[in-house]
Design a protein that fits this description.
Blueprint lengths: L2 H9 L3 H11 L9 E2 L1 H7 L3 E5 L9 H11 L2 H5 L2 E4 L3 H13 L3 E5 L5 H9 L3 E4 L4 H15 L2 E2 L6 H7 L1 H9 L5 E5 L4 H13 L4 E7 L4 H8 L22 H10 L2 E5 L1 H14 L6 H12 L10 E5 L6 H8 L3
Parallel strand pairs: 2-10, 3-4, 3-6, 4-5, 7-8, 7-10, 8-9
Antiparallel strand pairs: 1-2
Helix pairs in contact: 2-9, 4-6, 4-9, 6-7, 9-11, 10-11, 11-13, 14-15
């Protein structure tokens, strides 16, 4: 093992950290169920289960990492407030965690943020700041504001406490379905995909873990080809939560160690997946949350080997107007 590999290995989140995060979240987070999907069984001919994180507090998996991060802060530091750069779901998660701890929160969102995600953060008491359209724009503005007012920046994915919190999704999967053979997980900046991959492999090494990202935002695919994170010139997808221009460096180390494969999905299939989940499973998913189902519908992932498949649905923060527009009903 080279020096770089040894350094990356030393930084990887341990099973003990995932388990501590699960304990921290026990009294505040939803232990989302696993739901058998007759619709996907009909399509794939395989045993497929859904992990619906749209049922999590804040409407997405992000609450797990945000709360774990805030819980780890010294009370006097936390009292000065927190700030979060986010396309939407991380913003709502940090706003909710801050509300539970009784501390102020500011969220830096893109100028293109959906109404559902902005309104959600505002309802939870966060101060809203808009900055550009990319992850870099939001991060730069959040850092500037943090330095100015003394608040603590809560990173969206490139942090071990965030990864540990998001990885509790993986712990739950292996506990709820010990026979699981494959886990599919969306890939944005990489916090949840890294956490789920690590937590699953550390508890059930035989299970395949496959990341799924939009064709218009192939940051993990390109990073795996290059052997290191690289910044894309631009990204484009209706899966607004998965449009990071670069995979996080710490998440990437976990992907390299624990993730078996990553596949790309076309946007047109995301609409079909959102509609399938709505009609057949009665679950409202945003496109980012439905991408694992889209991968199964497309045949990009074989679901017929090594036991049941679990598709993680990362969130459902879309309002009625946005859903009608997405599905062409308006």
């Amino acid at each position: 093992m080279g020096n770089a590999e040894a350094t990356a290995s030393a930084e990887l989140v341990s099973l003990a950290e995932f388990r501590r995060a699960a304990e921290v979240l026990t009294s505040v987070a939803v232990r989302t169920p696993l739901l058998s999907s007759d619709a996907l069984r009909d399509i794939t001919g395989s045993d497929v289960w859904l992990k619906p994180e749209m049922l999590q507090r804040g409407g997405a998996f992000k609450f797990r990492g945000a709360y774990n991060y805030l819980a780890s802060m010294a009370p006097d530091v936390r009292a000065r407030g927190v700030i979060a750069p986010s396309s939407g779901n991380h913003a709502q998660a940090v706003a909710l965690a801050a509300k539970l701890f009784g501390v102020p929160a500011t969220v830096v969102m893109p100028t293109t943020v959906t109404r559902a995600k902005r309104d959600g953060a505002e309802r939870l008491g966060a101060r809203i700041e808009l900055a550009g359209t990319t992850t870099a724009h939001r991060m730069d503005r959040a850092l500037e504001m943090s330095r100015a007012d003394g608040s603590t920046l809560v990173p969206p994915y490139d942090d071990r406490r965030i990864i540990a919190g998001q990885g509790t999704v993986g712990l739950e999967i292996t506990q709820q379905l010990p026979s699981v053979g494959t886990v599919l997980v969306p890939v944005g900046g990489g916090g949840m995909s890294a956490g789920v991959a690590a937590a699953v492999k550390l508890t059930a090494p035989h299970v395949r873990v496959i990341g799924v990202e939009p064709k218009g935002a192939p940051k993990l695919t390109r990073a795996r080809q290059a052997g290191a994170p690289i910044r894309l010139e631009s990204t484009a997808s209706i899966a607004d939560g998965l449009m990071a221009v670069e995979i996080g460096h710490l998440p990437f180390a976990h992907h390299q160690r624990y993730m078996d494969d990553v596949v790309l999905v076309d946007d047109a299939l995301l609409r079909d997946a959102v509609l399938l989940l709505l009609e057949r499973s009665k679950l409202v998913a945003e496109p980012s949350g439905a991408i694992t189902v889209a991968a199964l519908m497309s045949g990009a992932i074989r679901a017929d080997s090594g036991g049941p498949v679990v598709a993680v649905l990362s969130g459902g923060n879309v309002d009625w107007a946005g859903l009608r527009e997405l599905l062409g009903a308006g």
